[in-house]
Amino acid sequence: MKDLLCSQFQETVAESLIRHKGMVDAMTKLQESVARVNRAIAKAANQCGCIRIVAEKQKLPEEISLADMQSLIDTDIEGQICENCRDVLETEIGSTLFYLTAVLNAVDLSLYDCLLKEHKRIKALGLFHFS
């Protein structure tokens, strides 16, 4: 069922693309959409104020295991994103998924297969995935 949703989404993207069907257009639109996700988060913090980004050096004990580190590292975000900012962010992330799928279509890759492969890799590596 989940692969069907990915397949349907991928097919809908393929049917919807006209101007940005070429690889260069799809790549640049993907990059632009990722920047818009970043901008939506920045606006939530700087204009709306529903969240605060408090980025500072993480204070961790010297002798700490990777398992313990996961529970001690903070996300740097305080507060909850409001409904308006959530809507904007969901829209921008949707566009990012659209253009990511356009890139996948251009090189004949399956969105579902990529998700499945990454999920398996993350599960196999566990805490060592991005450490």
Short structural summary:
By secondary structure, the protein is mainly alpha-helical.
Characterise this structure.
This protein has about 130 residues and is mainly alpha-helical. The protein has one domain (about 5-130): Helix Hairpins, CATH 1.10.287.1080. About 65% of the residues lie in helices and about 5% in strands. It has 5 helices and 2 strands. It has helices spanning about 1-15, 25-50, 65-70, 85-105, 110-125, and strands at about 50-55, 75-80. Strands 1-2 form a two-stranded antiparallel sheet. The longest helix has 26 residues, at about 25-50. The protein is globular and about 50 Å long.
Please give the alpha-carbon distance between the first and last residues. Answer: 33 Å
Rg, nearest Å:
18 Å
Number of domains: 1
Please bin the fraction of helical residues.
55-70%
How does the helix and strand content classify structurally? Answer: mainly alpha
Query: Sheet bearing the most strands, described?
Result: 2 strands, antiparallel
| CATH architecture group name | Orthogonal Bundle
Helix tally equals 5
Tell me, what is the CATH class? Mainly Alpha
Mean pLDDT figure: 88
Instruction: Kindly state the number of beta strands.
Output: 2
Q: Within the largest sheet, what's the order of strands? A: 1-2
Question: What's the CATH topology label?
Answer: Helix Hairpins
N-to-C SSE string, H for helix and E for strand: HHEHEHH
